[in-house]
């Protein structure tokens, strides 16, 4: 099949072109490709499907389970133009979460391996096609916070690592000195110094081992000034600010680390934009509305491309840069052959219509019963999405195509 008459986002701007797809892969990109079946993309902008490097779908291993199913959150992903999600699984019992997505996911899926120290099982999982480790410097699930020795043990073996970087020594001290209270205490107990100091230490190890280290969900503009690291941004750290925690329903907006503001002017510094999607409905958040019992996490997987593309157009920034952050760089970090309009890559492609303007309204999305971005104005809509070369979203209609597990190559 050949997608014809599209405007393709390239590093030198929008270019007229055609994309040929065969057996799930992009086989040619160019002009005047001759072939049988044609898909007319007139008036639409063609770009690679999004790769969301950070999602927590059907998360059932923490104190509070998310309110979604694999089906629901991956349908939302597809409607938002994301064709690959990268979730997390523990190095012990790694395949239990992988299998949970099989046959249920409406987009392709991949996993980071959660581990706070080096082990033989990391090598085995890497050989199997999962090369990135998620490391926590705060307690997570049943594990204590990882320290610099733990991190070094993984980096010296050549793994790429994504780090949740907050200083638990400082945070636990602050929490122990605060009583029960509102969500503004969450912000106070997790100051930006906690992230900056931790990222600074980690940057030393990253340089020492010449490793790819990605700081997950960067919340402080100052963290972005530290050299030698990669940076992941999220919608909430870019578009929300501390005023949300003083609202009457401030508990809804709680994330770890919290949103601090001051990020919108720094967007170009990020290597990638992810969501850190956690689908919690209002009721679940409300059941845990007081500090320190708050439930961090926001439903956002459907909004990443629309919000980022809107931001780039409004600021007059090149769309190519948005494509790098939304698709190319997260695919590269995980060593996945998707996220680019290039011969040999998986035919995960979206056609975006910049002519439509709409206002975010949780009732019209495919996620939780609320959204942190209610009322935001959006430019453009995902009209069509191809998943492994198959049309999966047809002018806003879900066709029921299922995604597959993808491995590093
Ligand atoms: Zn996360």
UniProtKB/TrEMBL annotation:
Pfam families: Amidohydro_1. GO terms for molecular function: hydrolase activity, acting on carbon-nitrogen (but not peptide) bonds. Its cofactor is Zn(2+). InterPro entries: Amidohydro-rel, Metal-dep_hydrolase_composite, Metal_Hydrolase, Metallo-dep_Hydrolases_sf. Residues 45-375 form the Amidohydrolase-related domain. PANTHER family: COLLAPSIN RESPONSE MEDIATOR PROTEIN (PTHR11647:SF1), HYDRANTOINASE/DIHYDROPYRIMIDINASE FAMILY MEMBER (PTHR11647). This is Amidohydrolase-related domain-containing protein. It comes from Candidatus Acidianus copahuensis. The lineage of its organism: Archaea, Thermoproteota, Thermoprotei, Sulfolobales, Sulfolobaceae.
């Amino acid at each position: 099949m050949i997608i014809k008459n599209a405007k393709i986002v390239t590093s030198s701007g929008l270019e007229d072109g055609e994309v040929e797809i065969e057996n799930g892969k992009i086989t040619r990109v160019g002009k005047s490709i001759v072939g049988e079946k044609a898909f007319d993309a007139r008036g639409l902008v063609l770009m690679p499907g999004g790769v969301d490097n950070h999602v927590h779908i059907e998360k059932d291993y923490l104190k509070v389970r998310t309110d979604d199913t694999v089906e629901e959150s991956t349908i939302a992903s597809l409607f938002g133009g994301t064709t690959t999600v990268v979730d997390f699984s523990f190095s012990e019992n790694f395949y239990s979460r992988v299998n949970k997505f099989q046959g249920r996911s409406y987009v392709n899926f991949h996993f980071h391996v959660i581990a706070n120290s080096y082990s033989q099982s990391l090598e085995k999982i890497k050989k199997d096609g999962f090369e990135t480790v998620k490391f926590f410097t705060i307690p997570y699930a049943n594990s204590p916070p990882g320290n610099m020795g733990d991190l070094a043990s993984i980096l010296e073996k050549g793994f790429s690592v994504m780090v949740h970087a907050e200083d638990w020594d400082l945070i636990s001290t602050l929490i122990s000195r605060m009583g029960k209270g509102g969500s503004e205490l969450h912000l106070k107990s997790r100051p930006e110094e906690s992230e900056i100091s931790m990222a600074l230490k980690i940057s030393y190890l990253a340089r020492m081992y010449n490793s790819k280290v990605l700081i997950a969900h960067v919340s402080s503009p100052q963290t972005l000034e530290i050299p030698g690291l990669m940076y992941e941004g999220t919608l909430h750290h870019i578009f929300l600010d501390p005023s949300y925690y003083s609202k009457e329903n401030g508990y809804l907006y709680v994330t770890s680390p919290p949103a601090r503001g001051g990020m919108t002017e720094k967007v170009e510094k990020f290597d990638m934009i992810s969501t850190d999607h956690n689908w919690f409905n209002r009721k679940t958040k409300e059941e845990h509305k007081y500090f320190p019992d708050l439930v961090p996490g926001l439903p956002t997987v459907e909004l990443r491309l629309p919000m980022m593309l809107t931001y780039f157009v409004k600021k007059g920034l090149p769309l190519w840069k948005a494509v790098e952050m939304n698709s190319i760089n997260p695919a590269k970090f995980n060593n996945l052959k998707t996220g680019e309009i290039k011969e040999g890559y998986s035919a995960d492609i979206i056609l975006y219509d910049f002519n439509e303007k709409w206002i975010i309204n949780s009732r019209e999305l495919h996620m939780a019963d609320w959204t942190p971005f209610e009322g935001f104005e959006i430019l453009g809509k995902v009209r069509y999405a191809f998943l492994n070369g198959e049309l999966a979203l047809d002018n806003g209609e879900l066709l029921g195509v299922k995604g597959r597990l993808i491995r590093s190559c």
